[in-house]
Amino acid sequence: MPTLDRVLLAPTVCCRTDAVLKPGSQTRAFAAAVLAIQEGQYLAALEHSAVTEALQSSVGKPGSIKEYVMACLNASHEAREATASLHLVAAAAAFQLFLQCNITGPYLTAAEETRLAVWFQDAAPAGGSGTAGHLSPAIQSSTSSSCNGTAPGLDSGEPDGSCSVLQQHPSWAWWALRVEVTRQRMLQGRSATLQRLLRSLSGQVLDQYAGGQTPSGLQGRSRLAAAALLECALAELEYGAVRPAEELLTRANQAAGISISLTGAMGKRTVHQMDPKAQLVVTTAEHSHIANGHTNGHADGASSLSSHGSKMESSEGPEEDGDDAAWLDRCSLGEGSDGSTGPAGSSLMGVEDESDVLAAPQLTDAAGAPLQQSLASLEQALLLGWAAHVRRSRAKDELLGWQTAPYAEAVLAQQQSRAILRAAARLQQARHERRSNRTRMRALVALQQLAEAPACPQPPTHTRLRCCMLVAYPLQAALAKEMGEEFVSNGLVGQAMELFEKQELWDNLILCCQLLGKKPQAISLIHRELQSRPDDARLWCALGDLELQDDHYRMAWERSGCRSARAQRSLARAADIRKDWPKAVEHWEAALRISPLHPAGWFALGFGALKLKDFTRAVRAYTRCAQLEPENGDAWNNLAAVHLQGERWLEAYSALGEAIKLKRGSWQTWSNYALAALRTNHPHQACRGVLQVLELSKGAQIELEILTSLVAGVVAWHSQHGAHDVGATSVDASQAGLERSIEEALRAASTSATSPSTSFWAVRARFHGALGQPVSNVPFPPTANTITAGAMGPNAAQLDTSSYAPGYAPTDSNTLPKWSGFINVVNGTQLADQQCKRFPVLGPNTWELLEEAAGVISPPPGLPSNTDSVEYTFSRAAQNYQTTVRFRAHGVSPSYQLQVSPGNYTASAWRAIDYIIARAGQYGIKLIYVVADNWQQADSVINYVEWGTNGTSNNTDLFFSDSRVMQIYQNHLNYTLNRVNTITGIQYKNDPTIFAWDLLNEPRCNCHPTTLANPAALPASCQPNCTNSIATWGGSMAHFARQIDPNHQVVIGNEGFWGQNSVDKQYNPSPSNNWASYTGQNFTDQNSFANTTVAAFHYWPDLWGDNTTTFATQWFTSHINAATYLNKPLILEEMGKQYNISTCNNDACRTSLRVPFYQAAYQSFNTSYYGGGPMQGIMFWRLVNGPIQDNGDGLGVAYTDALFTGTILPNSRSALQYATSKNAANCTPTAYAPAPAVSTTSSSRNL
């Protein structure tokens, strides 16, 4: 390293150098200037004739880097080297003069200010952009001298690197780095341009000083590398880059030969404490690692104790020792050598430190003797660097101060230190102590002393600047602002106002005026300032804040030349207040284009995007906020919430992992974390989340769904491995640990403040049952055995549930909102009630609900014989966010028909339907009422054909074309619509419980194929030719129904195939033979009639022979596109995935087989529904009312299946919460007036 670089650089990083400037032609010109810098006479160095002449030459004071380089190239080699050296001297002197004037002091005298003005007479002061106010001219000189803060030779346009100043003086990059770090600290916000420049300069510095080849000539050269690494780490922390900073700090520790750790030690914290208590302290340990004959002795001469307290030898002379700490403290109070008191010796009127809390704990060893470590200056700077890292990387909560305090206390405990290090430690301690009432006054006094210390005459200038750039110490203006804010928090508003006006901190001044009720005075002050500075955007923004007028912000934007990010942020906040989210997003994006490193702006942009349902933009915004501010727990939490909305479970789990570190006290965050952990197969973490929710909510929140899924997993595991006691050693350790965690969560929930529901006790019983433990061991509450059914009339009764299987007792909990009136189509493709509340169609299909209601068949296997299956169906649906049930209002078995012959009905069947409708209304469930069926069930197409043709034909094509057959169906439909419910007294057409009439389930033509390999080989007589007839029939019957009943929606229960002539037939199942196109269906045509108000389709991958998720996604997407074209709501009315009941006889197998298909369906639904598309719901096939999984077809879904709890339930819940979060747009609410009841012969159920 050149001698000049060593001489100038070493004092700033507390490294001793044996380099001496030798007389010569190249050094004679600036030797005196260098000596002045070493003595702290920076202005004298700048005034040196050689420096002045160099700056006034064509080579000096360049307009650009390229101009400077070209001047170097045109000069002789000797002249180039001498000029570069003079520029280095000028830059070092000017920059340190700026630090003296704006950070360390002492202030320049009046005479010195005059000399500086004369020297810099042709340079205008830089206008501050924030807390720095008006800057000293010295920084201008420094920037100019260092080629605008960038090391010459870094410019890509340089023609030849051989003449680069960076090669002649490698410390150029380091000085330039310091200039730009200081410039960033002067700004209110982070500059992306400066960030790129700083990282470029950091790379140059690290290559030169911390790379493989370290410059020689400095003793303890690894400590020079440590200083370079530390300064680069602090530069990263300016932008919140905690991970790169941590890596650099770790490397700095290694270079300095120390390790730093937090630990515990015994000590006393207050003056009255008798016995030592455990204290959090920081310790350092040394290790030898420096090769090539160099030791790791302390380069600045400060001796150190190892972790065992042994004294280390130092090779430094006394002139390089750290300053006496007690003397530094006296100097900071303004006490001169003669005992006189300067400005900082004064204290706030009436404010005294009477705290009994020690400034630092008095540590003792095991024997009670005082314990202290002696640290060199660089080690103290490293401690403060780590404290800055902790402050950036931890949550801003009450623990943060205690986590950073040990670092400052370790520095303040030193007998020898540097002025800036001690000031930085005192500032950090004051920031911690102001949080406590016992130490608040001491913190306030400390802040005032630190703010006034630069005015003190001692210590000398060069002493103050030692290690100045090794700590992130604020500029005096920023420190004054911090002190003013502390004044305000302590009620000293008057003193704060004087300070803020002096520093031109208008935002803070306005706050003080508002606190004192002096808003008019503040407005008058801003207007007065605007008369002299009409183009000051900050003043216009301040006026906008006072008068709450957006025009002032727009004026600020115009006056700034469209460069004021503050103006756009103010406009964005004003739009936020008005809830004008499109405008808010527009202004936030404009502000972030100017100042992209503003975390709060990205957070606000994410919030606005969420309000607009723009989830892609929200993810981008919250991700950027979390990158810029990793300690922002709200940013991580909101980012996770957006991912949860889109069911991106892995991304949500990762984000929530960060959020819970920073928002430890939020049970909502832990709840989301538990859900994401469950979805990503982290059951242990899910248990942890459940326990945290219980603790933080004080037992008010029991994550029953998550517990149910966890227990289901345990049940599935034991169905394969058998039962055992919780935590048995013979069981897989992970499984045993999981079961212990689940047991702990269940136990905690059972003793919570909120009485658990019967469903919870059933889950707990199921858990113990899986372990082979008697259910009697579970401490059920005394009232858990009975539950009252809702009153339905005189015959309503208490249902005895004592014999129900675990988890299957009915419940009176209801997750559904109260819908108002009928469900209508709004905006073409959306559904909403009469108060414009969005309505998602979510729920199960049922099979023999009519027969169960009529009592002609027993309840499903596994349920007691006295179970009311209808009540059970609707109560469980209401409990699990299911809004709709689709049921067949006709017999399934030919042995029990609703219509025995045309107009001849089974009375009990009608009363059973009455009861189904009445019970659904009680629970807020909407119904899709299936009028008839294509398949050969009771009341099917074949029955109508036989009746219409007097038994002469069984060609079901006639159902859609024969006038006699169509009339019989029309008569039945007319009777249905006008029927009066014998329980409620309401005509069906006036009952809002019914959501839609499904005119016919799955219409197909005669001789239709199913999955034939070659459907075209069918006989000509069987080729379907009734496609048009099905479409015409649907249109005419829908028109007939809507004439009688305009209140309800009408659907045709199509499977959704496209016909032979349709361009969309490529989307049919098995397109290679396209059997589906021969069924007579044509989805688009058959749903094009105006009175077919809702389009429906089905999905049966196994029955259709196309069992891939690729086809599934294609099937859903094509129908969404078709519904968009039709401008109608779309419902997936049936969806079933089959499993083999013999080989796939456990829930784990069923789940792995079926979940991918259901996830594909819900993914398509979510994308459409949340994105404003036409798809409005999914209805699964089919509900199984009981613990026996199925009756033999392998298609049923029970509420306890992992498929339901893990996929159907969370998607249903999210859709329902989204639907009810705000009303449908462009919808006018109308009052619902219930139709008058019609008298009937029976007002109660009589089955």
From TrEMBL:
Q: Where is the composition biased (Acidic residues)?
A: 316-326
Name the Gene Ontology molecular function terms of this record. hydrolase activity, hydrolyzing O-glycosyl compounds
Q: Which Gene Ontology terms describe the biological processes this protein takes part in?
A: polysaccharide catabolic process
Q: Glycoside hydrolase family domain location, by residue? A: 897-1182
Task: List residue spans for each TPR repeat.
Answer: 599-632
Return the Polar residues bias intervals. Answer: 138-149
Q: Which family does it belong to?
A: Belongs to the glycosyl hydrolase 5 (cellulase A) family.
Q: What is this protein called?
A: Glycoside hydrolase family 5 domain-containing protein
